[in-house]
Here is the input.
Amino acid sequence: MVNRFMVMLFLAAPLWLAGCADAPPMPGPQTASLEPVAAVSPYQLGPGDQIDIVVFGEDNLSGIYDLDESGSFSLPLAGPVHVNGKTAREAEVAITARLADGLVTDPKVSVNVKRYRPIYVVGEVQKPGAYPSYGSTSVLNAVALAGGYTYRAQNSGISVIRSAGPAHRAVPIGETATVMPGDPLTVPERWF
Here is the structure.
């Protein structure tokens, strides 16, 4: 059996090498170009997040606030503040502007995310559902939170719907790609 395999390999090698002759040469170390790593955009606040607001010198305005379904929260004396789609720094500016409008003299505000909205993992995983998020993570880590793949999982066909994206449609994603809080991840079933 081994001899037959060696003979087939010996006979097939010239055909394989002939096909490689037309291929472009592999870049050497001096000509290899590295693609830039895509930067992860700053986290945008949204419904389900919990933020910790500190208004320096104003303890009655400081506290932990949950963002409602519209991405807003109610700040004492200032009323509702809409921070959906804003980064923590942009939320600081919005809150500072609201407080400076006759409520607090020269307000200094700090905003930090206390609890991120969950990551949703559905499809061919052991325990589909919502899982707590601690910021951005990889697809593989999100699948691990859901107990790993089932035996029917097709790990090359995973898709995600970006919660911060305008299209709200499923896009293919690899195991090493980044998943943000609020993103639903779908692991499809393989047919074979």
About this structure: The mean pLDDT is 82. Helices lie at 2-21, 88-100, 139-145. The chain has three helices and twelve strands. The two ends are 29 Å apart (CA to CA).
